[in-house]
Amino acid sequence: MNQFKTRTEKYNYIRTQQKEKRIKAAKRTVPLLGTAMILSPGVLAMNTVKANAAETSQTQNQSAFIEQLGASAMQVSSSNDLYASIMVAQALVETGFGSSQLSSAPYYNLFGVKEYNGGPSVTMSTQEYLDGQWVTMNEPFAVYSSYSESFQAHANLLTGSYYAGARKSHTNSYQDAAVYLTGRYATDPSYASKLISLIQSYNLTRFDTPGAGTAVQSTEQSQQAETTQSTQQAVQTASSSQASGQSYTVQSGDSIWGIAEKFGISVDQLLADNGWSSDSTIMPGDTIVI
């Protein structure tokens, strides 16, 4: 045991011991920090790889879903004077690229068809716009055994006299059919541009089969249509952004009600700001005014 003649001597000794302990502790910390710095780039790289893998997987799933829809739509459309490309595009809009539970097995309901006549059904909650507000309700939705059966039920609807203008024999192109369905099948004023954009982006015309009244567009006409559409969309987006100062890009799984809640605004305000009606639809990638 150390002997100290004065309190000052004892105090200085304690201070020296404490200082030495701090130095030793610092030396032990440096290698650990160095290791952390060496590992950090690896961790970041691993996270990047995981993110890229997730994105690739999502793209592959979407592609597989589109191919599956296309095969079923071709079988149904060829015997019903309809465009398979239009039917597939409608299914993508309705299901959010297959993200809805109703569109998945074992329900296979691609178009949100309800069942009130005693057929196979499943009860699910849904958002209905009633009396100026969104209300959550439990409704019976039709259950199908396959996508082909769901497409056939949809074809039965489209071949009625009310939708006659969407058939191949009454149109020159799928664009004509998309325009005709706007205001009839869906009141969303941008419904036609959404369908046409999907058809062009994913080359859905490869599912169309030759039929009466089908005209083959030239490459020049097709490019001109795409350019016109892109210009119109750019103008609409710019106008919306200038009017509100804020825009939002719709993500997979979004709903009009959910977006309104996310930004703390009423559904009525969101509908009015975007010129929508209660029947309007949104899809991933849309730019909307908040």
UniProtKB/TrEMBL annotation:
Keywords, alphabetical: Antimicrobial, Bacteriolytic enzyme, Hydrolase
Pfam families: Glucosaminidase (PF01832), LysM (PF01476)
SUPFAM superfamilies on file: LysM domain
The keyword Hydrolase appears for this protein: yes
Transmembrane region(s): none
Signal peptide range in chain numbering: none
Residue numbers spanned by region Disordered: 212-247
GO molecular function terms attached to this record: amidase activity
Keyword Hydrolase: yes
Low complexity: compositionally biased ranges: 214-247
Record family assignment: Belongs to the glycosyl hydrolase 73 family.
Designated name of the protein: Peptidoglycan hydrolase
Organism (species): Enterococcus malodoratus ATCC 43197
